[in-house]
Design a protein that fits this description.
This protein is mainly β. 12% of the residues lie in helices and 31% in strands. The chain contains 3 helices and 18 strands.
Length: 232
């Protein structure tokens, strides 16, 4: 009986550790656009929007956005595929953040709101790829190392790292938009995101109004979401 109890305790501890490693964060990727500057691009730069689905501000210092090609084995394989959030970076409760990516393209319009951060380090594919919010600034964050991922979005059928299933393939004039104005997070890229015409998607930065739906939802300060199972 003692051995059985010990075994059950060990199993419970392992499950608790796994839950902590895979648990969702309140901060998640809420929009993805990689068609900036393309011949039929809506805007002249790529962008990623973040959303904080909690009632407290979250510091992003020590975190990074890391991009990887659809079939690559890692994110941020070179410094040019990563944007590191500087000291003081923070996303407010129920608020958004806009990060403008890549070099200025020759086609498309400027984004209609001022980005919170701009970087030349990441230039995404317009059609298929993967982007992650990670809790470190190490290069070569492998798909098989889920504890480093705060959130991850794979898009297009050839994307090899995602939550449950990849989101749809895109064009230069389309973006991925997380449903529920950023709130929906069932850990399934294919159903959590919708494809939208980029010209009609809402543009939000840290100065935009907070999500009223988020503010109406009781905030929990500990565990957010369910287990994330990442597939390669």
């Amino acid at each position: 009986m003692k051995k059985v109890a010990t075994s059950l305790l060990a199993t419970a501890l392992c499950l608790a550790m796994a839950s902590a490693a895979f648990a969702s964060s309140a901060v998640r990727i809420s929009q993805v656009y990689g068609g900036g500057g393309g011949s039929t691009g809506t805007y002249n730069k790529d962008y990623v929007e973040l959303f904080n689905d909690s009632g407290s501000a979250v510091s992003l210092f020590g975190w990074a956005l890391a991009y990887g090609s659809a079939t690559g084995t890692s994110f941020g394989s070179v410094a040019g595929n990563m944007f590191v959030f500087p000291a003081g970076a923070s996303i407010g409760p129920c608020h958004y953040m806009l990060i403008e990516l890549g070099a200025l393209g020759t086609n498309g319009a400027p984004q209609p709101v001022v980005p919170d951060y701009t970087t030349l380090n990441i230039s995404m594919s317009a059609t298929t790829g993967k982007i992650a919010l990670v809790n470190n600034t190490n290069l070569n964050n492998l798909c098989s190392n889920p504890p480093v991922f705060i959130d991850i979005v794979g898009y297009g059928p050839t994307a090899n790292c995602f939550e449950t299933a990849p989101a749809s393939v895109l064009t230069n004039a389309q973006s991925l938009v997380r449903n529920g104005a950023g709130i929906t997070d069932t850990d399934n890229n294919s159903t959590d995101f919708s494809v939208a015409a980029t010209a009609s998607t809402p543009f939000r930065n840290s100065a935009s109004p907070a999500s009223t739906a988020c503010l109406a939802t009781p905030a929990h300060s500990t565990t957010w979401g369910t287990l994330k199972v990442l597939y390669r």
